[in-house]
Design goal:
By secondary structure, the chain is α/β, with parallel strands linked by helices. The chain has a domain of about 230 residues: P-loop containing nucleotide triphosphate hydrolases (Rossmann fold). It is built from 25 helices and 12 strands. Helix 7 packs across helix 10, helix 8 crosses helix 10 and helix 12 crosses helix 24. The protein is rod-shaped, with a radius of gyration of 53 Å.
């Protein structure tokens, strides 16, 4: 199996999904553990966190019906989308939240963290901070959801108490309607008050002027005027008329300015036909909708969202600027009208002085009379405006609004969160995906070799065979016991056995003790590979070593030796590990009169022959002999350099079919490097899933220094349940059993 994280990009199309399945099987306990932790945490949190209830009210915001002709005072085009966007923002405004909090005294409830014993100890600054926290908490719980293609909007609030949630939503809707009514008629009321003050003032002036005219007429006994006086009076009348019109214009401009300066932004969009303001509001609404739509997909820090946020801010500033420009324009118009009035008044006063020189009595009379007529005309205009604004102001008492509650919020019966089933499902999915990701991360960080492909790339050596681990071979029935049971059943049917299954706890000598096991078959496949390698050039002496200690080289030596004896070969195993010998323990005899004894003896040729007879020890396995290491010497490397070892190997080659030499690890000591050139080939044992790639690279460097040829690699302790070898072994042994069963 190729390591999942090392597959070249060019081979992506050749990836076998079974490779990933092998990793998942191998790291299944990592996946299961992570899944269990995430699932437990998600379930516990879902059951422990407080329940939250959501109450929802439905509002209908209809198109505004403008029944007044006084559109300069109040006018809203609610068909524009900007109007609805404004209403949605007002529903979530802090001012509206503050009204609801005050009305329901929410800052005194446990829902918003009120603790009486702590509140008494707080100072003014702490209380202000507490007020802001409650306001922010409230605003964060309000959710506004417009229903698409309709003028209906759903307003929701989340609370831990279901009754309180419903009460807050209903109060919020009521306060929103009340605020809407209040703000809608505020500008009209202010204009009405202003007009009333102007009318009262003008009425007093008319009364005073009429009284002056009457007193002046009586005092001067004025009856008629001459032609010259009539001309002057007419000019004076025209000027006074212009002055009156200027005064009317000034009052109208002043009224408009006061209305604009006190009205809301939405009330300005039709004032004086302000199309620029309308376009700016429409652009702002469009950007706001686009930002809301994309915020459901992207995070705020996403570049596109940042750019869109900047455009939205610019649009908002443009709207605010247009509001200021509109107010400034109204103020400028008012100032122009005022200056015009003042100019005409100055001209009028000059004309009165000139007329006074001609006939002060007549001019004064006519002047007073014209002033009275003009003020009455102005009075009539103001009364008309007062009538219009008065109707609009009185509509407030009717409590009419274009916003109404369609469905009031009901007390929720079930909590909106946490959604236990959904959270558990998400925890299950997250735990599973996270566990798989963690498993592949561990696999990526694992530096050990796991298959023959990796070893071939690192060492350029063929793989002689794969030895399953004893634990993996005994899982789920696919071990030697499984095949032994089936084999024993077939023997029992044939009258050749009792059907009992032999159980072996160690892999040492398993080829002799459980020849029907898949592990034994693995060693026999290695035997076949060795026999095939000796067809063209016969090889008799093999040195078996490993990169590091505890990689199973001694076990591999004895089992290969047993498998060779089963092929009617005469085999000798030599324990050349003079530092940590083990062969004498496996075959259960004392480690005396061994190889070191032979190499250190000072004797002649005849004595060597006699010592050689005593050196070779037979075993209970037919055809298998052993030379134990003997006493551990102080200088193993120097001892192995002796010519006596070379002579011994040459003698033994003629007495046995095969010599298997158990040598120390290559990277631990130099013993194997000393002996390897005197053998016919080197067999390297690698512990699957344990030997690192770095160790094999150093082995490659060591082997390049050897003059002996290398036969191949035996991969030991492979977990066949975690690799694709499992499938090969399964089908092979299934085939073997069927074949044996049919033959029996």
């Amino acid at each position: 199996m190729k390591e999942w994280n090392q597959i070249p990009a060019g081979e992506a199309g050749e990836i076998d999904l079974r490779d990933y399945w092998v990793v998942i099987r191998k790291r299944r306990w990592v996946i299961v553990s992570f899944l269990a932790v995430v699932l437990t945490v998600g379930t516990v949190l879902s059951l422990v966190i407080p329940r939250t209830y959501r109450a929802t009210a439905t509002l209908l915001i209809e198109k505004e019906r403008n029944i007044l002709s006084f559109e300069d005072v109040f006018s809203i085009d609610s068909s524009q989308d900007a109007y609805y966007q404004t209403q949605y923002k007002l529903l979530q405004s802090r001012s509206l939240a503050s009204n609801v909090i005050t009305k329901l005294s929410l800052d005194k409830t446990s829902e918003f963290g009120y603790e009486p014993e702590k509140e008494e100890k707080k100072n003014k600054e702490a209380n202000e901070r507490r007020t802001i926290e409650v306001l922010n908490n409230f605003a964060n719980r309000v959710e506004v959801e417009p229903v698409r293609q309709t003028r209906i909007v759903k307003v929701s609030f989340n609370a831990h108490e279901p009754n309180l949630a419903a009460k807050i939503v209903n109060t919020l809707a009521d306060e929103f309607i009340e605020t809407n009514i209040q703000s809608k008629f505020e500008a009209t009321e202010q204009a009405s008050v202003f007009l009333s003050e102007q009318i009262d003032s003008l009425s007093n002036e008319i009364t005073q002027k009429e009284r002056q005219l009457q007193d002046y007429t009586t005092k001067k006994s004025i009856v008629t005027l001459n032609d010259k006086e009539t001309t002057v009076v007419e000019r004076l009348g025209d000027l006074n008329k212009a002055l009156t019109e200027a005064q009317i214009e000034r009052v109208r401009k002043e009224s408009t300015y006061k209305q604009i300066s006190s009205a809301t932004a939405d009330a300005l969009q039709d004032v004086a036909g302000n199309e620029v303001f309308k376009r700016l509001k429409e652009e702002y609404a469009r950007l706001d909708r686009e930002y809301r739509r994309k915020s459901e997909i992207f995070k705020p820090e996403y570049p596109e969202m940042i750019a869109l946020r900047a455009e939205l801010d610019n649009a908002k500033r443009a709207v605010e600027k247009e509001v200021r420009n509109t107010a400034n324009s109204a103020y400028a118009d008012y100032q122009v009208a005022l200056k015009k009035e003042q100019s005409l008044e100055s001209m009028f006063n000059g004309m009165k002085t000139e007329a006074g020189q001609l006939n002060s009595d007549a001019i004064q009379y006519n002047s007073l009379k014209v002033e009275i007529d003009n003020k009455k005309q102005l009075m009539e205009s103001l009364l008309t405006r007062q009538s219009e604004t008065g109707i609009s102001a009185r509509l407030k008492g009717l409590r009419t609004s274009n916003i109404r509650i369609v469905d009031r919020a009901e007390v929720p019966l079930t909590p909106a969160s946490p959604r236990v089933k959904l959270n558990i499902l998400l925890s299950l999915l997250l735990g599973l995906l996270g566990g798989i990701g963690l498993a592949f991360l561990y696999e990526h960080l694992d530096d050990s070799v796991k298959d023959s492909d990796q070893i071939n790339k690192l060492l350029s050596l063929p793989t002689l065979g794969l030895i399953p681990s004893l634990s993996s071979a005994t899982q789920n029935g696919y071990h030697y016991g499984y095949y032994s049971r089936r084999h024993s059943r077939s023997q029992k049917v044939a009258g050749k056995g009792d059907g009992k299954v032999a159980e072996i706890a160690s892999i040492e000598l398993i080829v002799a003790k459980a020849p029907q096991s898949n592990i034994s078959e693995a060693y026999r496949s290695i035997r076949t590979a060795l026999l095939m390698s000796s067809v063209d050039q016969p090889r008799r002496a093999f040195l078996v070593t490993s990169a590091l200690p505890s990689e199973g080289k001694t076990t591999t030596v004895v089992n290969i030796a047993v498998s060779l004896t089963q092929a009617d070969k005469k085999v000798l195993v030599i324990d050349l590990d003079l530092r940590k010998p083990r062969l004498h323990r496996i075959f259960q005899f004392k480690n005396v009169n061994g190889l070191t004894t032979y190499l250190t003896a000072n004797d002649g040729v005849s004595d060597r022959t006699l010592n050689l007879v005593n050196l070779i020890k037979t075993t209970p396995i037919p055809g298998l002999s052993v030379i134990n290491s003997g006493p551990i010497p102080p200088n193993p490397a120097e001892l192995l350099h002796s010519n006596k070892l070379t002579e011994l190997l040459n003698i033994l080659r003629h007495q046995f079919d095969y010599l298997l030499i158990d040598a120390p690890p290559l990277l631990a000591v130099t013993d194997a490097l000393i002996v390897a050139p005197r053998t016919d080939g080197l067999i390297l044992v690698v512990w699957g899933g344990k030997t690192t790639r770095d160790a094999l690279k150093r082995v490659r460097e060591k082997m390049d220094l050897l003059k002996a040829s290398s036969v191949g690699v035996v991969i030991n302790n492979i977990n066949i349940r975690e690799h694709d070898y499992y499938y090969k072994h399964h089908y092979y042994y299934y085939y073997q059993h069927d074949k044996e069963g049919k033959s029996s």
